[in-house]
Amino acid sequence: MLNHVKGPKCFEDIRTVNQFVHLTFREACYALGLIGDDREYIAAINEAADWGSGFYLRNLFATLLFCGTLSMPSRVWDETWQLLSDDILHRQRTILNNQDNIATFLTKDLQLTDEELQNYALIDIENSLQINGSSLRRFEGMPFPDMSATTHHRNSLVMDALSYDRQSLNEEHEIQLSSMTDEQRLVYNEVMEAALNNKGGVFFVYGYGGTGKTFFWRALCACFRSKGDIVVAVVSSGIAATLIPGGVTAHSRFGISINVTEDSICSRIKPGSDLAELLIRAKLIIWDEEPMTHRHCFEALDKSLKDVMRVLDVGNAEVPFGGKVVVLRLTKNMRLQVGSSTDNVEELRKFFEWLLEIGDGIAGGENDGEVDLELPADLLI
Predict the structure, then answer these.
(1) Going from the N-terminus, what domains does the chain have, and what CATH number goes with each?
(2) 285-315 pLDDT, tens digit each
(3) Alpha carbon distance 131, 363 (integer Å)
(4) pTM of the prediction?
(5) What are the contacts of 351-357 at 24+ separation with CB within 8 A?
(6) Burial zone of 285 (CB within 10 Å; 0-12 exposed, 13-18 middle, 19+ buried)
(7) How far apart are CA 177 and CA 172, in angstroms?
(8) Longest C-alpha distance within the chain, in Å?
(9) What distance in Å separates the CA atoms of residue 287 and residue 235, rounded to the nearest whole number?
């Protein structure tokens, strides 16, 4: 007996599965089970939500999109968007709380609709994709955010970096300029020329006690901040951080791991993050006490800065620290400038030369790691 099977007569028939007309052929294939159902990825996001933040989950989702892993991104989004936007409300409250003249009770009462939560989450995802040369517009069925909402976002790190009294800093800077040694002034001019013209540059500090490194850091900070520019100042120890206005430890600011390796990166410097914006806008990054830090820490910062700075110019990925870091070199002792007499200055000069020889390992002549040093008679008690 001859059977006749009725086939589709139009595209609508092709998109129909179990008497339901799907919007796209891909959705119809998805309903028929011809393509993956992404359940393993939905499960992975749910599992990651037990220990990862919303920010982490959004980056995970963006990575899945960028790698072309998801069969139906919109379905995954529909089932996980609440997890992906879990920290959005807290973040917006924090942003408002850092704005000038915003009452605390307003931030506590801030509420966002589901549509607003989704929009902020989608903005973060879109920013992550754009950094990698992609966009949500490339993924069929995925909603696209209202990017104008980003105008309401105020980066608390940037706001804090710009919150200095520019008038008092300008007055402080004028006094510091008049007190600089000739060597300090020479390096100062080099740094200013490189930073103000966005040339970038890497200058290495070499200065023993008394060369005025902290004084010089403060002068640079005052100079740029008095002009409304951003300076990121970090040090290798918590105690030294108190000597530089706005100073914090490098591990805290950049998220450098304690057990750093040659493959380490700065966990806090992520493209599209508030810290990335701070570093992009910074005119100068100061890192004090460099000899106390392992080279892998600098390499981690170098890789992370190249990653965020290439957003502005792909060529930044090929230059040290993305063209951002300026480190300085000083050797002339400021304390020699304040001697009350010629004899006193000469004594100080000899003393600091002796200290420098010890620091350089050349005091006492050639040695194999051990040497007997003779202390100057005037230092003996």
Answers:
(1) 38-150 (no CATH), 161-323 (3.40.50)
(2) 988 876 667 888 889 999 999 988 887 788 8
(3) 53
(4) 0.51
(5) 351/376, 352/208, 352/210, 355/208, 355/209, 356/208
(6) buried
(7) 9
(8) 123
(9) 5
pLDDT tens per residue across span 361-377:
677 777 666 777 777 77
Is 284 in a helix, a strand, or coil? Answer: strand
Residues 6+ apart with CB under 8 A from 266: 254, 255, 256, 300, 301, 303, 304
Closest CA to 20 of 32, 9, 35: 32
What own/partner pairs with CB < 8 Å and gap ≥ 24 does 61-68 have?
61/125, 62/124, 62/125, 62/128, 62/129, 62/132, 63/128, 65/125, 65/129, 65/134, 65/136, 65/139, 65/142, 66/128, 66/129, 66/132, 66/134
Instruction: Give dist(CA 97, CA 122) in Å, integer.
Output: 23
**Region of residue 18 (left: phi > 0; alpha: psi -120 to 50; beta: else):** left
